[in-house]
Amino acid sequence: MAEYMAGNVGDYVDGDRKVVVCGDSEVGVFRIGDEFYAWHNRCAHRAGPVCQGRIMKRVLEPVASDKTTRTQEYDEAESHIICPWHGYEFSIKTGFHQGNNRVRLRKAELQIRNGEIYVSV
User: Fold this and answer.
1) Residue pLDDT, tens place only, 35-57
2) Which contacts qualify for 23-30: CB closer than 8 Å, 24 or more apart?
3) Domains (ranges, CATH) in the chain?
4) Does the predicted TM-score (pTM) go above 0.85?
């Protein structure tokens, strides 16, 4: 596996991301809190550039006892990446699509050594 430098830990603030060119492919590196995650920049739906999409908190629709929803709220503990092509939404922490757990992003290996971030593809 080839290894590519994705910057220094200090280059990223909470909620940041960088898309790193890794030979013939790209990997998105995300920082959520103190944790880093790396995903191949290829949507599981139609191969769109998912890691370049909008980052936002997971949207929840609380269902009332009469089965209606009248509001939306955000799950502050869960950040998602939304593919810019068709709006497919994935957890940055797990890579899973929230509506179908068989659809997920492909994980890239990530290592931090001496404050430097490396991804392997």
Assistant:
1) 999 999 999 888 999 999 999 99
2) 23/121, 25/121, 26/51, 27/51, 27/108, 27/119, 27/121, 28/52, 28/81, 29/110, 29/117, 29/119, 30/55, 30/79, 30/81, 30/92
3) 3-120 (2.102.10.10)
4) yes
